[in-house]
Amino acid sequence: MQSQPVFNHRWLPWLLLLPQLAITLVFFLWPAAQAVWQSFLMEDAFGLSTEFVWFENFSVLLQDEIYHRSFTTTFIFSIGVTALSMGGALLLAVMADQVIRGARVYRTLLVWPYAVAPAVAGVLWMFMFNPSIGILSYLLEQLGYDWNHFLNGDQAMLLVIIAAAWKQISYNFLFFLAGLQAIPRSLIEAAALDGAGPMKRFWTILFPLLSPTSFFLLVINVVYAFFDTFGIIHAVTQGGPGGSTSILVYKVFDDGFNGLDLGSSAAQSVILMAIVGALTVVQFRYIERKVQY
Amino acid sequence: MMSNLSLANIGKTYPNGHQAIHSLNLDVEPGELIVLVGPSGCGKSSLLRMIAGLETITDGELHIGEQQVNRLEPAQRDIAMVFQNYALYPHMSVFDNMAYGLRNRRTPKAQIRQQVESTAEMLQLEQLLERKPRQLSGGQRQRVAMGRAIVRQPKVFLFDEPLSNLDAKLRGQMRIEIKRLQRRLNTTTVYVTHDQTEAMTLADRLVVMNAGRAEQIGSPLDVYHRPQTPFVAGFIGSSSMNFITGRLDHHQLQLGELRIPLKQKVDFNGEVIVGLRPEHLHRGTDYPHRIELDVSLLEQLGADTLVHGKVPGLDQELIVRLKGAAPCEPGTRLSLGFHCDELHLFCANSQQRIN
Lengths: 293, 355
Prior knowledge:
The structure holds two protein chains of two kinds.
Chain A: H1 12-39, E1 41-43, E2 50-52, H2 56-62, H3 65-98, H4 103-111, H5 118-129, H6 135-142, H7 153-182, H8 185-193, H9 198-209, H10 211-228, H11 230-236, H12 248-258, H13 262-289
Antiparallel strand pairs in A: 1-2
Helix pairs in contact in A: 1-13, 2-13, 3-7, 3-10, 5-7, 5-11, 7-10, 8-9, 10-13, 12-13
Chain B: E1 5-13, E2 19-28, E3 33-37, H1 44-52, E4 59-64, E5 67-68, E6 79-82, H2 94-104, H3 109-122, H4 138-150, E7 156-160, H5 168-185, E8 188-193, H6 196-202, E9 205-210, E10 213-218, H7 220-225, H8 230-235, E11 242-249, E12 252-255, E13 258-261, E14 270-276, E15 289-300, E16 304-310, E17 317-323, E18 333-338, E19 344-347
Parallel strand pairs in B: 3-8, 3-9, 6-7, 7-8
Antiparallel strand pairs in B: 1-2, 1-4, 4-5, 9-10, 11-12, 11-14, 12-13, 14-19, 15-16, 15-18, 16-17
C-alpha cells in the first residue's frame, strides 16, 4: 500500500512549499529576528544614535512597576475575556442545540459577530457605553449608576472585556455547538432514563464529553485575549485611563510608537513571543493526545 | 420484578400530520417477552420510544403496573432501555456506567457496590469493571449495556435492536444470553428487532408491525402457522413464503391450470392470494397435490437446498426448500408435492386470511 505521494523530482516539493515558506520568512521570521536584535539595542528618542546594551532592556523591564502592572492587567483581562466568551458561548450552544424550529437562522445570527473587525466591534461597544451619548450608559444613569469609562479604570476594563468577549463568542459557539452535536442523542436519552435531570445530565455527561473542545478553546481564547485584542483596546480606551487597560500587546505598541522607546518595545515583544511559543507547545502537546476519555 | 404493561389505543401523530402509530392495543403479561418486529420505518422503534417516554404519546393510554404513565418523565416510569449503539457513557468506567442510574436515585454507596458487583458477576463482567467502554469488544459493550439496565431492577426492560451491531456468530450467542437472563430475572420485556429469526426465537408473543399498525399479535408458532395477512406471511419465515394469485370457486381453488379441491370449508368466492412456504413443498410421492417446477437456480446451504424455478402456467417464481444436497440441475424439471392444508389463503382485496 502506497499511502504517501511520491515526488520524482527533488525540487518539486520545495517549489510547492516555496510560497508558504516565503510568507513565513518575510512576515514572521524576519521581523521576529529584527525584534530580537532590536531588543538588545537602545536608541535615543530621535533615532540618531544606537547602542548595543545586551540585556539591559529586559532587566529594566523586569524591574518596572508599570510593566508588572501591565502583566496583572493582561491577566485579569484574559481571564475575563476567556471566561465570559466561553461561558456565554457554551450557554448559547446548549440552548441552540435544543432549538428545532428555525435552528439555522438562529445559528447564522449567532455567528455574525465573528465577521466584525475587532476595531469595529470596539467602536460599537464604545458608542453604546459612551458617557455622553451612549444608550447603555444613559440607561445605567436612569438606574442611578454613573458610567464613565474615560475616568473609571474598572469600568474601562469591564467594557473592553465585554467588547472582546462579544466578538469571540461566535467562534466558541461554533465549536461548542459542533461538539454538542457530535455527542450521540442516545447518551442523553440513556442518562434521562437513568434518572438524571437536565442539569445533572449537563454536568455529568455533556460537560465531560465537551472537555477536549473546551481545552482547545481555552488555548485559543487565551491567545486571542493576549494578542488579537489590540484593535479593541486601541479603539475603545487606548490603554487608559491611566494605563488601566494597557495589556502587554498594547503596551508594546504604546511604548514603541508613542513612547518611541524602540528597545524596550522590542524586548516586550520578544517576551510576548516566548509566551505565544509556550502556549503553542501546550496546545500541540494536547492536540496530539486528542481525546482523554 | 413482575409488572404488566398495557397499551390501549396508543397512537402517534407528528405535528406535520404524519401518523406513525395507528391505534395500537397490547396487553403485556408480567414477565412476558414481547417482540416488536417489522421492516424499517414500520414504527416499531417509535412505539418503543413512546413506552420509554422519549417520544410523546398523542393518543391512547399507557399503563405500567397500575399507573397511567402517559405524562411521566422517562426517569419516573421505572424502565430501563438497551440502545442499538449501546449508549455507554464513554468517559466513565464500566462500574460507573452501571452505577450511574443508582447514584441518581440516591442509593446508598454500599448497596450500589453490592448491586453492581452481583450484576457484573451474572454477566461475567467482574474483570472489566475498571475499564472504559472504548477498551471493550462489541460483545462486552453489549453486556455492559444490559448490565446497566438490569442493575436498577426496573419494572420493564426495553431493547431497541440491541444485537444489530454485532457479527452473526456473536449475535447468536447474545440472543441466547438475553433469553436466559430474561427468564431468570422474569422482567417484563419489550424487544424491537427487524430480524425475524431473533423475533421467532426470543418472543413469548410477537407483534408484527407494518406501516404503523400491528398486523398480527400472537405466539411465534401461531404467527408462523396462521399468518393473518400476506404481509405477515411473507415477513415471518426465513426464505420468504411463495405467493400465487388464483381464484376460489365453491371450494375449488384454481391456480393456473391446476385445480385443487379444498378439504376445509371456505365460504369465499373470488380472487385469492395463495401462500405456500418453501419448506412445505416436498419431493416424496405421498402428497395429494403435485406441481412441476422448471428449475432455474440452486442455492446450496449444506443442510438444505433452495431451489428457484417456475411452474408452467403460473407467473410467479417459486422457491422450494429441500433437505440435503440438490437433487437436480438447473434446466431440469422437478416434480413436487404438497398438502392443501398447508396453503394459506388470503382475500386479494381485503388482504385478510380466509381459511
